[in-house]
Amino acid sequence: MTTLQDLAARLDRVETELALHRLAHDYCVGADHRDPVRWEAIWTADAAWETSSDQIFTGIEAIRAAVEQQWQAFPIMQHATANHTVEIDGASATGRSDVVVLAQLRNHRWIVGGGTYEDEYRREGGIWRIARRRVVHPFDLAPLAPSDGPVDVDAPVRATERSES
């Protein structure tokens, strides 16, 4: 027979998983939409963001400065996170997810990159945050052709364009 205590534990686990998945989404939305409030809210005060083996940003100020540099370098960024798994252990948890990022350079060329995030999460005052995010297995592809903006999807396609795709 399921007790009220069992149900409460199961509900806490479900709410925790949802909160951790929300952190992964808020990371992408905060970065892509240049939302400093959302961006800062996902991190613990002493968080570390390890973007490469030789670049580790520690603390909210350093992490905010690092993303602001990215915002300056890339007029448009679009992250897509998938395969997010989490392991919960009381007030801490770990996670792993894959990411693909499209970023536009100042010269309108696009680059594609990505990798895998390994995360450490911590619950403080009932709120889950990222305590450490490490990028592993990063990849970058050569810049794509320049683009001045979105393609008109309603425009008719010429026969030569169809054969090129």
Automatic annotation (TrEMBL):
<protein>
    <recommendedName>
        <fullName>SnoaL-like domain-containing protein</fullName>
    </recommendedName>
</protein>
<feature type="domain" description="SnoaL-like">
    <location>
        <begin position="13"/>
        <end position="134"/>
    </location>
</feature>
<dbReference type="InterPro" id="IPR037401">
    <property type="entry name" value="SnoaL-like"/>
</dbReference>
<dbReference type="Pfam" id="PF13577">
    <property type="entry name" value="SnoaL_4"/>
</dbReference>
<dbReference type="InterPro" id="IPR032710">
    <property type="entry name" value="NTF2-like_dom_sf"/>
</dbReference>
